[in-house]
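Support request, please re-run this one:
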Amino acid sequence: MSIHEAALVDYAGMSLNQRRLGVLKADLAPWSDGVLVKTTANFNTPWRTIQVSKDAVGLLNSDLILNLNEPNKLGDVSWVEPGKYVGIWWGMHVKENTWGSGETHGATTSEVKRYMDFAAKYGSKGVLVEGWNIGWDGDWFFNGDVFDFTKPYDDFNIDEIKAHSKKTGVKLIGHHETSGNVTNYRKQMADALDLYQSMGVAQVKTGYVADGGNIKRIDDDGIARHEWHDGQYMVNEYLYNIKQAAKRNISINTHEPIKDTGLRRTYPNWIAREGARGQEFNAWGTPPNPPEHAAMLPFTRMLAGPMDFTPGIFDMGFNGLGANTNRPQTTLAKQLALYVVLYSPIQMAADLPRNYEANLPAFQFILDVPTDWQQSIAVAGEVGNYVAFARKERNGNDWYLGALTDDKSRSIEVELDFLDHDKTYLAEIYRDGDKANWVDNPYDLVIEQKTVSAKDTLNIKMATSGGAAIRFKAMD
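Re-run finished. Output below.
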């Protein structure tokens, strides 16, 4: 069973307060003055949803949350483009670069051009650049008052980058980090989005890093108030950003977001969100995401909608291998499986370019896998233990399958009856090798091919915190 809500607009977000055994109470995030919801007569509340299934997989195959939202209000949204991207991002998390200025500044003109060249070579549509604008120096977590969303650092030449974007056909993906000061961002939002529109930016990642209950707003009397991310004020603020971006044909990928309640149906430019522990926690989290994390997400966070998890780390040993270091606690095959299991219309190839070029055979799956699907079917899984998804590409005949497990190695039998029954497929399989394990041998990867049809069954063997990624390439 899953309890959630849908179509959250101009209302406080709900969580569940566990009371005595068997009793749950709807708990609304309040305003800073303690009021839960401020409204007038004839208002609409969000839908409250309870989804019940005979098995765990059934929950994964529900579209209830999405379908309880109103249809598209934006009209022609052909400008909302799914796809894969790379970015000046992981280098900061593994401390090769910095967000702030200096000798190791990541967001420089030369580095952006290098990433754009890499993206163009391997077919990525965009390059995310964090740390390009004034305000990142020092402890940026607390810099919400000083961020300037239109003024770049001296080593970030907007005109030169714009020209290189046009030359390579790779778009810059913008970034707006508010550090929780939404009033400072609101004052600059129109100018900031206008700047991105002039640069041909089609997607912007926003960030609202702040401790819970510490979103800063300045009220009409000039007094600083502190709100919750899930309170009514921020519910409206997030949606305001979406609407402003839509006026400029820009899509938004919200980090530190209000939870997804299916509004991407009404506003399709709300293309993705974060909203759970993503890949970055594997660089510095204490502890990093455990092996069962990715097997839990489909049954929790992902029931609400797409997540920008940023998969695809190939170098597991940047802090050394073993069980007690900050690193992805997965095998390489599991990193590939994430592209199918954790749905997002935009997917990042999150690692450093050199790590992909050092392993082009494995990188091929990332190059091939789509991000936009015609059909999705969960075919196996138990909460927090393992999961397998089959998805068919949009405007094509190929299917993909991703499977992953927790800290236990396991084999699962997957019937291929989801495949088109009148076709034969070449299964391109990326799986854990016989000696693979996440602790000290995560790179043991087998790439093999076999011919299959809808009548076949595949035995998928996964190592500890391992997985498998398969492309079913239609042959006729």
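The chain has a mean pLDDT of 97. Residues 13 and 230 are 5 Å apart (CA to CA).
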